[in-house]
Amino acid sequence: xxxxxxxxxxxxxxxxxxxxxxxxxxxxxxxxxxxxxxxxxxxxxxxxxxxxxxxxxxxxxxxxxxxxxxxxxxxxxxxxxxxxxxxxxxxxxxxxxxxxxxxxxxxxxxxxxxxxxxxxxxxxxxxxxxxxxxxxxxxxxxxxxxxxxxxxxxxxxxxxxxxxxxxxxxxxxxxxxxxxxxxxxxxxxxxxxxxxxxxxxxxxxxxxxxxxxxxxxxxxxxxxxxxxxxxxxxxxxxxxxxxxxxxxxxxxxxxxxxxxxxxxxxxxxxxxxxxxxxxxxxxxxxxxxxxxxxxxxxxxxxxxxxxxxxxxxxxxxxxxxxxxxxxxxxxxxxxxxxxxxxxxxxxxxxxxxxxxxxxxxxxxxxxxxxxxxxxxxxxxxxxxxxxxxxxxxxxxxxxxxxxxxxxxxxxxxxxxxxxxxxxxxxxxxxxxxxxxxxxxxxxxxxxxxxxxxxxxxxxxxxxxxxxxxxxxxxxxxxxxxxxxxxxxxxxxxxxxxxxxxxxxxxxxxxxxxxxxxxxxxxxxxxxxxxxxxxxxxxxxxxxxxxxxxxxxxxxxxxxxxxxxxxxxxxxxxxxxxxxxxxxxxxxxxxxxxxxxxxxxxxxxxxxxxxxxxxxxxxxxxxxxxxxxxxxxxxxxxxxxxxxxxxxxxxxxxxxxxxxxxxxxxxx
Length: 667
Description:
It contains 39 helices and three strands. By secondary structure, it is an all-alpha fold. The longest helix has 14 residues, at 52-65.
């Protein structure tokens, strides 16, 4: 029996489940009687099988028939671990409850299993029982702190860590946090962006251990924490203090620079890393490409792309790197290369091809290639084998419907979301609200809003306020804002941009001014340029140009294009040429290559009877080589969508007058 068990152990250690099962069935036919050691080896090897739960159940039955489940704690523990790792928590809990005296190892396994399934309540219930029985050890505390941090509950993780520091084990000795505990605590600080608490814990760890300097994993988490808190210099200092700088540590430093919009130092760090002979992994390369996206620099991006291609020529494409490259080419306004990557890599059976489709659609959207974005989305059904649009896809495509007024297409996507349960995702729900609002279907937008009443966030409320304001219903926007306050949802500066803009378009001057004062007085929100822009628009639309100019002069920040653009727009309503010229002069300094405000000033000149001024302005624009903005119109029928491009010619508003050259059909 010894040699047979030894061979079983060898197969188990090598993870050869197929060979192990064949050998096991052969020796069983020859009269072999398994013991507890045999069952433990078989159960430990189950993770390498394709259907571990399917194989665990007959082994469980066989072990129970031979009396090992009730008498041997090692077999029981192994069964518990198999069930918990397979996601069969009901079976694992049943075994746990049937144990006369569960060992701490079993408690810890059950707690970790509940956290893996995001059942924090059940995990905490077991942990509290362990503490009451004085069974909780340092491994238990570490598992619970890590569980909270991994499930997006950083405050609970930090509160428990504080309690742990005052706890003693069964011998009366103070519990000492392990390296895994420390990494979870720093991760929680990073999630909260709490650098003060992070520094305090960093100081405590330095006094009690050398984890940060000598443990690369702990050190990388500290670098990541400071990076997420916006202190890339502190991240760099911690990086230099780490003794063994492996690829994880270098990647954390590069990612911290990228997180803080410091692409040049990120690229320099990558070059230093290569010089040190460290081989980058896919996370490093994804972060590097993201750094290039922030510049953005097409030549540098192509250089990095070539480096990646040379280093990974024999490997299958990595979805993280591929999506980062597509995003980078989109930001560099060169989606031709992005599309090439998409067409090449979508053929490989990589783990998540949906991400490739999402990145390509988003890249086209960023460059205002609406038709191309829509064509890629439509091609998923016949060209994206094994690809299913997810919540991210919906949140990318719904603004596309809103931008091009594709109401029928938006309803199609809504139906797909309903069939697949995606409408319950808050990002999808907010996208539907925004799409229906911008397409003029405020009733449908409000229906979607009410369906998700318990899940709605600040974005949902702001979208509804903006929707009513966009269609001139200032009273409806105010009604929603007051309802938002009653529900104790905290507004932000964007909410007030939407609200005051709604008041401006509806002519509700006094209400708009009152809400501007309320923003600071009652909600403690410091106005930004967008907020001042809405107030300037509100006052100027009401003809109170002097007050608008006084406000601009008193602004604590320099007025930008938003503010002067609002003033210029109101000048056209009232035919105020003098103020329009001033606004255009300021805009010319801020955005010299933009032709939009020049065309607005030209229109004001024409409406005021100053055609010579308008002609002079257009001549100046032509001499400067200013690109003219193209206007787009859509005509949607049940069969197709007609897109009209205004090439600076007068096109009547009736489709009968459109020529073949002026129509582009999007199926």
